């Protein structure tokens, strides 16, 4: 396990270097000039030249990249071009809302997906199985921006049960929970569909295994066979999907945050891309990449607790 963690840490470092290089070069070679956006329409050529000199945009691109990496290694993600705010502070301010949204969405996905998949496998080819499979396919196909808009129209505008958007209240309060419901459903629907399909497939494979037939032949009750013998072995691929989806949720809240006016990391990234704010874009991308790798490492560690037969030697 120690070797696995060390190997993944090395992969994380190399991955972040590669991602930072690609993002840095993409931002610098894309059309548009940050100095023009910062200076505004009234800026003169001398003003623009002064802004470029102050931000170091006149230096060779590779030199700019190495200066940036030197700062990252020292824990400095730089400062925003727009408001001169520390990128670390901007991310720290926005990240809790993104994390709360991702966790709430994952809870919705698990609570819907795992039971639906298991019941579908137990009652294969029944009306419930057909219905849940159809709904899962629809859940994967429906785009977030459309689903979010429809939920707002129905539950916020017409019924007036839930707030339109924003995550201003503490998430543990009643108002905070109300604000989380619609965004969490919007973001968690696709993940719930994928988890349901994987749970169904994994459970179908397990309940046909020899040891399950043996347990039934010995007179073990059906519920015990399903929830004790079969479920634990079926959860390995399900946990893989849950881990991957949670990583995607942390980096995939951009559209949902835009629809529900949530000031999270995704919305920060969109605003920074529009403003050509290089340091903020690079900082948010590095954060998402780091979280994705860390979540996958945690999934590998959980494997060993669920199934002691798994070895990483």
Description:
- This protein has 313 residues and is mainly alpha-helical.
- The protein folds into 2 domains: 2-87, no CATH class; 95-306, MetI-like fold, CATH 1.10.3720.10.
- The protein has 13 helices and no strands.
- The protein has helices at residues 2-29, 34-39, 45-55, 61-73, 87-122, 127-141, 144-158, 174-207, 210-217, 222-251, 254-259, 265-274, 278-306.
- The longest helix is centred in the middle third of the chain and has 36 residues, at 87-122.
- The mean pLDDT is 80.
- Residues 95-303 form the ABC transmembrane type-1 domain.
- Belongs to the binding-protein-dependent transport system permease family. OppBC subfamily.
- The chain crosses the membrane at residues 12-30, 101-122, 134-160, 180-198, 238-260, 280-306.
- InterPro entries: BPD_transp_1_N, MetI-like, MetI-like_sf, Opp2B.
- It is found in: Cell membrane.
The unreliable regions are: none
Rg over CA atoms, rounded to whole Å, is 24 Å
CATH architecture annotation name of the largest domain: Orthogonal Bundle
Number of strands: 0
- Please bin the fraction of helical residues: over 70%
Please report the distance between the alpha carbons of the first and last residues.
8 Å
CATH superfamily of the largest domain: MetI-like
Gist?
This protein has helices at residues 2-29, 34-39, 45-55, 61-73, 87-122, 127-141, 144-158, 174-207, 210-217, 222-251, 254-259, 265-274, 278-306.
């Amino acid at each position: 396990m120690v070797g696995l963690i060390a190997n993944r840490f090395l992969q994380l470092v190399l991955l972040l270097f590669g991602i930072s290089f690609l993002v840095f070069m993409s931002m610098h070679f894309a059309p548009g000039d940050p100095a023009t956006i910062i200076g505004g329409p009234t800026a003169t050529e001398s003003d623009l030249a002064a802004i470029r000199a102050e931000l170091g945009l006149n230096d060779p691109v590779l030199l700019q990249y190495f200066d940036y990496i030197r700062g990252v290694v020292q824990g400095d993600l730089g400062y925003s071009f727009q408001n001169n705010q520390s990128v670390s502070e901007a991310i720290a301010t926005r990240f809790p809302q993104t994390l709360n949204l991702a966790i709430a969405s994952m809870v919705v996905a698990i609570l819907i997906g795992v039971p639906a998949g298991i019941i579908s496998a137990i009652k294969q080819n029944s009306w419930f199985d057909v219905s849940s499979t159809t709904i899962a396919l629809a859940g994967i196909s429906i785009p977030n921006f459309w689903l979010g808009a429809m939920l707002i129209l129905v539950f916020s505008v017409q019924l007036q049960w839930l707030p339109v958007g924003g995550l201003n209240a503490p998430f543990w309060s009643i108002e905070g929970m109300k604000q989380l419901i619609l965004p969490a459903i919007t973001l968690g629907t696709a993940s719930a569909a994928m988890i349901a399909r994987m749970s169904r497939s994994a459970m179908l494979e397990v309940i046909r295994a020899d040891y399950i037939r043996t347990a039934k032949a010995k007179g073990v009750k059906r519920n015990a066979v399903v929830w004790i013998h079969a479920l634990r072995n079926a959860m390995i691929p399900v946990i893989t999907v849950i881990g991957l989806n949670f990583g995607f949720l942390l980096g995939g809240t951009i559209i949902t945050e835009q629809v529900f006016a949530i000031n999270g990391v995704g919305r920060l990234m969109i605003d920074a891309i529009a403003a050509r704010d290089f340091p903020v874009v690079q900082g948010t991308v590095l954060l998402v990449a780091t979280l994705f790798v860390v979540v996958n490492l945690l999934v590998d560690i959980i494997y060993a607790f669920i199934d002691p037969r798994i070895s990483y030697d």
